[in-house]
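Hello,

I think I submitted the iron/sulfur cluster job twice by accident. Can you confirm which output corresponds to this input? Input:
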Amino acid sequence: MKVMVADKAGACYGVERALELARRAAEKATSPVHTLGALIHNPAVVAELAREGVSAVDRPEDAEPGSVLVMRAHGVTPDIERRAADGGLVIVDATCPFVKKVHRAVELLSDEGYQVVVVGESGHPEVEGICGHAPEAVVVGSSAELESLEFGRRVGVVAQTTLERSVLRDVVSALVGRCGELRVIDTICEATRERQQAAAELAAASDVMIVVGGRSSANTRHLADVCARHCAVTHHVESAEELDSAWFEGARTVGITAGASTPAEQIEAVRSALA
Ligand code: SF4
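Support: Only one job matched these inputs. Its output is below.
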């Protein structure tokens, strides 16, 4: 049985960076270190961080004054940053630089008088953080959601970093003719597209496809859907322990991919268990 790992798989730059910043903060800290929400949608990594002294809090007010608060790669609203500073917390900003770029883009559009449209998943922490930088922005998940909205003369569009580009294209083309001036800042991060493309190509060439990542990780679930479209026998697992030898009977090629919140060690554990 041949086992292959997708060219692009697992933790992206922003997630690796956030993990590194949290670990470094824990090594240096003389006071408790917290993350605002789980740093990453991966139970094994969250448990490992807890052993290293990093625990999650839901709100800045839940952290004791003087403790360190690590902001996740998804980013936060300016209001949360203010509350953390007012509470006497030491902030470690692990917001991914690509997410920061979206914050700057909506601020610019808003300052220049554009009606801001954020294409993404309403309620997602990244989208909430983006809207915190342009409170009048509207969030749409698809072109169908534009129908009930009114638009002014100038409309500025950005996207959640993990959006599929086809959705952005649909929304932009549906906006043509609904306003006088349309400005689009394409803020989609290539990491997601590259992972999806590599996963689809590998799934098409595999008899069985294994997708590694937390079940609460939306991007891992999405990756599993992409694989299932190209390989009928696709399984989503959180760890190597969940692999079942019955899945591989008669399989000649097995592909492995992993969501953006899956560290390299977990991919390697699955690969070596299969090998
Ligand atoms: Fe940053 Fe892209 Fe990773 Fe999001 S997917 S954290 S934008 S590198």
